[in-house]
Design a protein that fits this description.
Blueprint: H1 10-25, H2 34-46, E1 50-56, E2 60-66, E3 69-79, H3 106-122, E4 128-136, H4 144-150, E5 162-169, E6 177-179, E7 186-195, E8 199-200, H5 210-228, E9 235-244, E10 250-251, E11 254-263, H6 266-286, E12 290-295, H7 306-320, E13 325-327, E14 350-356, H8 375-390
Parallel strand pairs: 3-4, 3-5, 5-14, 6-13
Antiparallel strand pairs: 1-2, 2-4, 6-14, 7-11, 7-12, 8-10, 9-11
Helix pairs in contact: 1-3, 3-8, 5-6, 7-8
The structure holds zinc ion (2 copies).
One zinc ion binds at residues 104, 140, 363-364.
Length: 396
C-alpha cells in the first residue's frame, strides 16, 4: 500500500508555481470563475483525471481519479473565487483585473489541489479506491458549497465517504498547519430596509426619518449580544454597511443596513436571529416606520470530524514534523462554507485545516498573498491525507 510522500517532483512544483501566479494575475469574482475553471479542466485532463462535472453550480468542476483497485472515495476541495479588493502587493504577478484580487488565497488553494491531483494521478497504480477533486465557485458569497451539494457533488459518479480541505492562514508560517479543534462560527448575513417618508430637511416633522430610525436600530442591536446572550456564549452582531441619503438637506425615503450574525451554538443562533428581527421591527414601529428584514441561512458552523482531525494531525506530524502541527487555542468567529459538505448538514465526515503562508498581511486585505513557499507543504498535505485515508490499514 502507498506510503505518504515527503517531497514533490520539481517539474510538478515548477508547473504549479506558474499556474498559481497565472491564477493570481487573473482573479475572478464569485460565480464568474470561468477562466479559472477552464484552467482546472485543462490541468486535470492533462493528468488523465476524468472530468465528471463542469459548470456545476455555475462554474464548479469535479474530477475523479479512479485507481486500479476497489476502495473508498475521498474528496479534496478547493474554492476558486476572488474578492472585490484593489491589490497593493506590488508583486510581479499582481492582479491584472482592476478592483479584483485573490485576497483570500483561493489561487493557492486551486494550485495546491491541482498539484495534489498530478501527484496522486502519478501514483494511481499504488492506490486503491478513488479521489474526487472538487473545485467550487462562490465561497465568498457563502453559497458555493451549498449549491454544489444540492447539485450532487457528493454523490455524482462515485459517492464520497470523507472530505478534506485547507485554507491559507497568514498568522502561522509556511510549512506549518493549524488544526481547528473547536468549531468555528455559523454565519447569517442580514439586511434591514427601513421604509420612512422623505422630505426637505428643514421640515422633519413632515417626514419619517429613516436615518434617525436606522441609527436607533444600530444602537439597539448592540443590546442583542450584551443582554440576550449568556456571557459564557459567543455571538457577534455587526452592521457593516449603512446606506442612506444623497444630500445634507434632504431626508430620504429609506435606509438600508447590512450586517452579519455570527454564533457557535444552534440555540444561540436561534435566539440572536429572532432578537435581531424583533429589535429592528420594534424600534422602527415605535418611531412610526416599517422595516423589511432579510436574514439569510448563511453557512452553518464548521465542526471537524474527530477521527479525521486525528488523521490530519498524524499525517501533518509525519509530513512536516510534529512541532509544525499547531492547534488553534481560541475559537474563531470566522465562517467557512466547507461546513455545507459535512455530516451536520447531512453530508459526510470531513476535516478542514489551516495552512501557513509567507505573508503577515491578513486575508481579505490588499497586501495579502498566498505566496509560493506554501505550495509544497500544501500539496504534500492534501496528497498525504488522501493516501492515508485510502490505505487499507487505516479504516477511520
Ligand atoms: Zn475569504
Ligand atoms: Zn477563503
Amino acid at each position: 500500500m502507498a506510503e505518504i510522500i515527503k517531497s514533490i517532483d520539481p517539474d510538478i512544483l515548477d508547473r504549479i508555481r506558474q499556474i498559481r501566479e497565472d491564477l493570481h494575475q487573473h482573479p475572478e469574482l464569485a460565480f464568474r470563475e470561468k477562466r479559472t475553471a477552464a484552467i482546472v479542466v485543462e490541468q486535470l485532463t492533462k493528468a488523465s483525471i476524468e472530468i465528471v462535472a463542469e459548470g456545476m453550480a455555475t462554474t464548479g468542476v469535479v474530477g475523479l481519479l479512479r485507481t486500479s483497485r476497489p476502495g473508498r472515495c475521498v474528496a479534496l476541495r478547493a474554492d476558486m473565487d476572488a474578492l472585490p479588493v484593489e491589490e497593493e502587493t506590488q508583486l510581479a504577478y499582481q492582479s491584472q483585473n482592476p478592483g479584483v484580487m485573490h485576497a483570500c488565497g483561493h489561487d493557492g488553494h486551486c494550485a495546491v489541489l491541482l498539484g495534489a491531483a498530478k501527484v496522486l494521478a502519478g501514483m494511481r497504480d499504488s492506490l486503491c479506491g478513488s479521489v474526487k477533486f472538487i473545485f467550487q465557485p462562490g465561497e465568498e458569497k457563502s453559497e458555493g458549497a451549498r449549491l454544489m451539494v444540492e447539485a450532487g457533488v457528493l454523490t455524482c459518479s462515485q459517492a464520497v465517504q470523507a472530505i478534506f480541505g485547507l485554507h491559507a492562514r497568514p498568522q502561522i508560517q509556511a510549512g506549518q498547519i493549524e488544526l481547528d479543534v473547536i468549531p468555528n462560527a455559523a454565519t447569517n448575513p442580514f439586511q434591514i430596509r427601513i421604509k420612512g417618508q422623505g422630505t426637505h430637511a428643514a421640515y422633519p416633522h413632515q417626514a419619517c426619518d429613516p436615518i434617525a430610525i436606522g441609527s436607533q436600530i444600530v444602537c439597539a442591536l448592540q443590546q442583542v449580544v450584551s443582554r440576550r446572550v449568556a456571557p459564557y456564549e459567543a455571538a457577534v452582531v455587526t452592521v457593516g454597511a449603512f446606506q442612506a441619503g444623497s444630500r445634507g438637506n434632504i431626508i430620504p425615503d429609506q435606509a438600508i443596513l447590512k450586517g452579519t450574525i455570527r454564533t457557535r451554538q444552534p440555540a444561540v443562533q436561534k435566539t440572536v436571529v429572532a432578537a435581531v428581527r424583533s429589535t429592528a421591527t420594534g424600534v422602527a414601529r415605535a418611531m412610526g416606520a416599517e422595516c423589511e428584514i432579510e436574514i439569510e441561512p448563511g453557512t452553518p458552523r464548521l465542526r471537524n470530524d474527530e477521527k479525521l482531525l486525528e488523521l490530519v494531525r498524524q499525517v501533518g506530524a509525519e509530513t512536516l514534523g510534529a512541532e509544525d502541527v499547531l492547534e488553534a487555542s481560541m475559537a474563531t468567529m470566522g465562517g467557512e462554507d466547507f461546513s455545507q459538505y459535512l455530516e451536520e448538514q447531512g453530508g459526510v465526515p470531513g476535516c478542514m485545516f489551516r495552512l501557513g503562508v509567507e505573508t503577515d498581511a491578513p486575508i481579505h486585505t490588499a497586501k495579502f498573498d498566498f505566496g509560493q513557499a506554501a505550495l509544497e507543504p500544501g500539496i504534500l498535505m492534501m496528497s498525504n491525507v488522501a493516501i492515508r485515508y485510502l490505505s487499507d490499514d487505516n479504516q477511520v
